[in-house]
Amino acid sequence: MSRSLRHGALAATALVFSIATLSACGAGNNAQTLQVRPDNAATAVDGIKIQNLNVITQPDHEAEGPAVISATLFNDTTKREVLEKITLPGGNATVKLQPAKGKGPLVIPAGGRLVLGGKNNASAVIENGRQVGADGSVQNVAFTFSETGDIELGASVVPATSFFKKFGPSTLPKPKPTPTPSDDASETPGAESGSPSASGEPSAPADGSASPSGEASASE
Predict the structure, then answer these.
(1) What predicted TM-score, i.e. pTM, was given to this entire model?
(2) Counting CB atoms within 10 angstroms of each CB, which of 66, 88, 98, 205 has the fewest?
(3) Helices (H), the chain
């Protein structure tokens, strides 16, 4: 191979390597946020990006308890945004927003981000998890922002198991107590008056006669 051909091959290899590296970096910037799989619901409107959106339910599909919304919200504008509310169109479910610390609005600073779900992050809790779609379905979720307005998209409904366990509801329902046989046997035999004593010995005669030692003393 001539020197010019070798140089051309090396240049082409370097170009391919550079493109691959830039692509990996670009994907990692957002795809690895929260370590949530990058193929989850995502959209962008006027500088606001919503990525890794999921509705996470109880690990047991028969359990009653809250569900949560997990997502990462990016603000690529020059103004701060406030996440005013989240609703589930077509239903009556209430979504309670809570900042990571204390009280107050959920603010997305200009050029910053807001993470919903997971430890030490803001939360969006659906009090009645039964009001969302079944696991494996798609639930419409609407975000209302102070500047951008409403953004609606579909979210996957997944149980808090395996990969999603650490992003699921922090308060799990307590199992319902089941009655035990001991609860029905609180009364013990022999509680009624006149019944044989627990020791099995005969009770004292009812005619008032004295003990054997008393009879012996009376005959003297």
Answers:
(1) 0.62
(2) 205
(3) 3-31, 181-184, 212-218
